[in-house]
Amino acid sequence: MKTCVVTANYACDPSKVWLYLTKPTLNGWRKDVRDFEESDDGLHVTEHNTDGSTTELRFTRKEKPRCLSCSFENGKVSGTFTAILLGGGDSTSLECTMEVSGLGLFAKPKKLLEDRLNMLHAALGV
C-alpha cells in the first residue's frame, strides 16, 4: 500500500470546491470521467471513465463543505481518499490523503492525485 498527502490552495469559497469534488462531471472538470451515477443518499457513486473502466466509490463521511472520505475500487486498484477543506469566503485550502493498493511497484499515487487537483484548479479558474 502506498500513501500520499497533497495540499492545494484555491481562491474561492470551500462550497464551490466541495461541489466540484462531489460532482466529477460538473463543467467537464474531470477529463477522465465520461459520466457518473449517484445513489439517492449520495453515499455510493459509480464513475464511468473515458478509458472504459468503472470506479466505485463508497463515502463514509460527507460533511459539507468541510470533509469527505471514501473508499474506492477500480479493477485491481483499491484504496481510500480523504479531503479536508479549510478556509472561507474567497480562500480554500484543500488537504488530501490517499492510500492506494494494487498499483504495482512503480506506481505514483501522488502524481495521480496531483493530476486531479490540477484539473480542479483549471475548472475553478483560480
From TrEMBL:
Name of protein: Polyketide cyclase/dehydrase
